[in-house]
Specification:
Helix content is 70%, strand content 0%. Helix 1 packs across helix 4, helix 5 packs across helix 8 and helix 7 packs antiparallel against helix 8. The protein has 159 residues and is mostly helical. The chain has one domain. The relative contact order is 0.19. It is globular and about 50 Å long. The N and C termini lie close together (6 Å).
Length: 159
């Protein structure tokens, strides 16, 4: 799949942010029909360590990622459990590699500099690490976990 442009990322994010409460269930139902395994992943992954607000944020951003990727140059293939497991393993290996690297920031730049869907990934991490409202109950330590889970979603869709 060709990289998703920054313009598509921005347009999709704005469209989703402006959705009325009535439109959201239709979008969720459409995702459930088109990507049932991916939707189940978003709802279940790390539910034992994420609080409710963190789970909701992960789900909301996951839907945004799916919407962005849906506008790519290819029709999205249905994500399978096998594909999710493969991408989770790949990301786990990447994290283990990063932990061993003495020049962490340089290595991260190298890995993500060549990442095919860097604009979508940038959106995820900017959304996670931007100044949060004081009312949000998103713990700092969970943002990285959510980010890696959403990178797995991007990787699964980027075929």
């Amino acid at each position: 799949m060709q990289p998703i442009s920054a313009e598509i990322v921005e347009k999709t994010w704005r469209k989703q942010a402006q959705m009325s409460p009535e439109e959201i269930p239709r979008l969720v139902n459409r995702m459930a029909k088109q990507q049932p395994v991916l939707m189940a992943y978003l709802m279940a992954v790390d539910q034992d360590i994420l609080n409710r607000e963190e789970q909701e944020l992960q789900f909301y951003l996951g839907i945004a990622v799916w919407q962005m990727m849906e506008q790519g140059d290819k029709k999205l293939a249905k994500v399978t459990e096998k594909r999710i497991e493969e991408m989770e393993q790949k990301n786990e290996e990447m994290l283990e590699y990063l932990e061993k690297e003495p020049e962490f920031e340089k290595t991260v730049e190298m890995i993500f500099g060549d990442y095919n869907q860097k604009e979508v990934l940038r959106y995820v991490f900017e959304a996670l690490f931007e100044e949060a409202d004081e009312e949000e109950n998103i713990r700092e330590g969970m943002k990285g976990i959510i980010g890696i889970n959403l990178k797995t979603v991007i990787d699964c869709l980027d075929q």
